[in-house]
Amino acid sequence: MSDVISNDKIAKYLDITKAALDKLRISAPERSFGRKMAEDFLNMATSYYNDAIHFAETGDNVNAFAAVNYAHGWIDCGARIGLFDAFGDDRLFTLYE
Questions:
Q1: How far is CA 6 from CA 2, 14, 17, 23, 62, in A?
Q2: Measured over all CA atoms, what is the biggest interatomic distance in the chain, rounded to whole angstroms?
Q3: Which is deepest, 19, 22, 45, 65, by most CB within 10 Å?
């Protein structure tokens, strides 16, 4: 087994996660606990996405791959529990139904 992850694979996953970040909208109402959770989920996703970019730029594709998958995990979780509106997009998000 190899621990080499190609630049093309990293670029593909970064593109998918960027598209998801650009598409989602916070659906929880202002001044609600859900809104605070959604903002926290989005902050975590964005932070991991930015870490993934940093790792990719420094040639650390293993950690870039891990970070981009963590980022998308936060996105999918937020969409699945209704914090984010994913607009029914089953390609970019893992939805509940």
A1: 11, 12, 17, 26, 9
A2: 49
A3: 45
Angle at 67 between CA 17 and CA 87, to 5 degrees: 25
Structure tokens at 34: 């859900």
Neighbours of 41 (CB within 10 A): 21
Name the one residue in this structure whose structure tokens are 């859900």.
34
SS3 readout for 54-83: HHHHCCCHHHHHHHHHHHHHHHHHHHHCCC
Containing 26, the helix (H) or strand (E) segment is strand 25-26
Residue 24 gets the label, from left (phi > 0), alpha (psi -120 to 50) or beta, of beta
Q: Which of 12, 84, 82, 11 is nearest to 45 (CA)?
A: 84
| 13-72 tens-digit pLDDT | 999 999 999 999 999 999 999 999 999 999 999 999 999 999 999 999 999 999 999 999
